[in-house]
Fold this sequence. Notes:
Layout: H1 2-30, H2 33-50, H3 56-80, H4 89-116
Amino acid sequence: MRSISFVTVxxxxxxxxxxxxxxxxAGIQAQSWxxxxxxxxxxxxxxxxxxxxxxxxxxxxxxxxxxxxxxTYIVMGAVRxxxxxxxxxxxxxxxxxxGLTMVGIALACAFVAAxxxxxxxxQA
Length: 124
């Protein structure tokens, strides 16, 4: 069980960390302080998960929540702007699949943080 939890946390940490590194890199190139801050927090969350720090759980929750809220806000803005007005229902649903997949992966990483990261600090 211990090896399964280690591998699961490592995979989730690499996903979170890689996403953070990508957002940080894009933020630096675009000179966007929002992306730099979010990317930095996400990268730190991934590294802290990998180090199995108990506090990283809450940082993972925060970056996942920010991601889901931002994605939902963008989709709602696109709907209000009529982005899918010319599409039928199938095309509308299919266009949401990549974003919904990313939301699912983010929620899975938050679940891994909740389930497999230590609850308290390590005691000597």
